[in-house]
Amino acid sequence: MAAAGGEQSVSIRLVVNERPHVLDVGAGETLLGTLRERLALTGPKEACCEGECGACTVLVDGAPVASCIAAAGSMDGRTIRTVEGLAGAGELTVLQQAFVSHAAVQCGYCTPGVLMVLTALLDDVPDPSETDIRQALAGNICRCTGYQQIVDAALDAAGAVSP
């Protein structure tokens, strides 16, 4: 199948934020491009385009992925969650509320990717240490907060949901 301009495309089925989609994607199309341009999900941010900064991080089958370097065509049959899929019925998650309470959101550009990485961490490790949190954040660049507010928010959120 050829896309506009003669580029080859492939049809994929994926679930994004609990909604199924069938899309024809081009051979060079990234998951980030698909999310932002086709599905109007602008939470994942385009920044480095090299998978180094974390601004575009989404969860693919529950694991953090740099969507700027992930091929959209490789997402067939996968489940994607973006920051838009975190809060249900307009209510913030415990982690999102902790970000607000700890002023962990400043300019906000990195926040969607950071929230996705920490969501995955808290799903896997409900009571993480500060070291666990800092290691999880190693691939996310934030130029505003200095990270301490983010770490404090994650620790607070873990405490709020841990038994």
The assigned structural class equals alpha+beta
The number of helical elements comes to: 5
Unreliable runs = none
Main-sheet strand order equals 2-1-5-3-4
Helix content: 25-40%
Termini gap: 52 Å
Radius of gyration: 16 Å
Order of helices and strands: EEHEEEHHHH
Coarse shape: globular
Mean pLDDT: 93
Q: Tell me the β content.
A: 15-25%
Q: How many strand units?
A: 5
* Main sheet summary: 5 strands, mixed
Short characterization:
The chain has 163 residues and is of the alpha+beta class. It has five helices and five strands; from the N terminus they run ββαβββαααα. Strands 2-1-5-3-4 form a five-stranded mixed β-sheet, with helices on one face.
Question: Helices, strands, pairings?
Answer:
Elements lengths: L8 E8 L2 E8 L4 H8 L18 E4 L2 E4 L12 E3 L12 H8 L9 H14 L5 H7 L11 H14 L2
Helix pairs in contact: 2-5
What does this structure look like?
With 163 residues, this protein is of the alpha+beta class. It has 5 helices and 5 strands; from the N terminus they run ββαβββαααα. Strands 2-1-5-3-4 form a 5-stranded mixed beta sheet, covered by helices on one side. The longest helix is centred in the C-terminal third of the chain and has 14 residues, at 111-124. The N and C termini lie far apart (52 Å). The relative contact order is 0.15. The mean pLDDT is 93.
